[in-house]
Amino acid sequence: MNIIYAKHDGCDKEFCWQVPDSMAQYIRKGDVLLVETYRGVDVAIATTGVISGDGTKDIAEKAGVYFPLRFVISFVDSHLKSYLTNMVRNDLISVIKNL
Fold this sequence. Notes:
The protein has helices spanning 21-24, 56-62, 78-97; strands at 2-7, 15-18, 32-37, 40-46, 51-52, 72-76. By secondary structure, the protein is of the alpha+beta class. Strands 1, 2, 3, 4, 5 and 6 form a 6-stranded antiparallel beta sheet that branches. The chain starts with a strand and ends with a helix.
């Protein structure tokens, strides 16, 4: 089992999600996560790296996590976030210049 803690924007509380094995090696603290919630799909920012291993479930239970955990659906790492930020910035500059 792989888990990660993250926060939603404007919320001080950390929540816990299960990370699929296929994503676990790529997600880092600070990455933007697309996550399942009881309200639907939402965005959260990872406050830890992925936690894996035999004691993972024990750690989550001691922290008061409710099971079954909802899943991380996707993520944006720092490289992609930087690329997208620059792309939007450049598009915005282009629009402003053409006003």
